[in-house]
Structure prediction request, 564 residues.
Amino acid sequence: MTVPLDNPQPKLGIIAGGGALPARLAAAAKAAGRAVFVVKLDGHANDPLLENYPQTTVRLGAAAKILDAMRKQDCVDIVLAGKVSRPSFSAIRPDWRATKLLMKVGMKALGDDGLLRLVGQELEREGFRLVGAHEILPDLAVEEGVLGAVQPDEQALSDARHGLIVARTLGQADVGQGCVVQQGLVLALEAIEGTDEMVRRSALYKRDGVGGVLVKSAKPQQDRRLDLPAIGLKTVEESHKAGLRGIGLLAGGTMIIDRDAVLARADALGLFVVGLRADENQ
Amino acid sequence: MTVPLDNPQPKLGIIAGGGALPARLAAAAKAAGRAVFVVKLDGHANDPLLENYPQTTVRLGAAAKILDAMRKQDCVDIVLAGKVSRPSFSAIRPDWRATKLLMKVGMKALGDDGLLRLVGQELEREGFRLVGAHEILPDLAVEEGVLGAVQPDEQALSDARHGLIVARTLGQADVGQGCVVQQGLVLALEAIEGTDEMVRRSALYKRDGVGGVLVKSAKPQQDRRLDLPAIGLKTVEESHKAGLRGIGLLAGGTMIIDRDAVLARADALGLFVVGLRADENQ
Prediction:
């Protein structure tokens, strides 16, 4: 998306979950001279930096309120960003609009990503334009190849590739986005606990010999404009503590938050970070 | 396998991993008037009851020794039973025979079940006959339908069926055999940590409302004669402690160790146990 500087971009609506990404996007948009409005998802958005922007707080289940707020604020471009821990049906407390949506797709919506995909589709149906976080902050994107200074050896690359197959297979069932593989063994699979927790757990099951690899992937069917799996500084620290040797990321299907800092820290700790291409037949 | 009583069955070789199953099989075979010989896998077999039978202890990687022992003991029928925590390549310390095997299939053998499958294939190539544990102890087998006194409600059945799809999808990547699903959400996926540990973890992530379901499944490609996923009394106790409402098991692809005791305890705790048919298109 290239827009001449003398043609200011339209206001950006940010639907914000947890973690640092939503405020980063707000800052990047603002730095580019773009107005922003933030809808914080109640109980999920948790970055105090978001207080610096015009905003409101809405329940995840209050679909009508989210759409109304965005419309009232004249937001056409909308980005969804940040962690949303998957709620149970009863915790969503859907309003009439969300209920209608949920009825349409059934309980499948409560699968790992179903809810997000649903929100995205509904936004587009309502005339909004869904924008990917990497369109706002291009250095989030992961490209193929070794990204830091540390080179993975053959065993590590083999573990990373195996992990990518496992993570994408998981993704077929709309669950999980990560795993830890050591010498061909899958030490841990990520469900709802989050990447950091899974990485910590993997340390309990690690075998002798060279350490394992954390792999993160989008799901094969994942809309690239919706919240992609992301790693940040914490992921690098936890991976190091767990005795891992590096991190494999699906190129074009994952994000690095604070890329420069993340790669510098990985270099310092001796961890590799590699972007992996998905095999077409996976 | 029905054999007239006046035609005694041939000696049974038991390659024994951890847990109670190997000694149960030995007892059942002996009760049926059949001689047994046990090869305990070093570091895996851990049931003191195995001391009651003729036996030897061999490293998992010492394939030649395992074959030699079975041959010397005139065992033709062989059953593999019990937990074998997947070792790293370096921990296997393969002998020349195991190395030849591993070279043949490559590192894939170290996938979750690859090693077992390999041992099974090699046994048959060497003229042994691989026997399923349920052929020795028929009440291990899980049939379709509600097995205990507690009936699952519709939500629970929906969770169980969703869990079966997830577990079988996982199985395609030759990893994991279980998961916990609550109201459509996958709370935990089993990798190498074992079912009990995964069930305990799921309690940390449970949502409000009705509790979840533990699901265990064989892999789609799993040889039914090789060690199938099993539940026992401990699984029932842990599931209850974790707030689960029941257990779903792939019919024909999982085992219940101590069926009567397990179902009685599940009844007493109010947990359902249901055998699920795999959809053909899964």
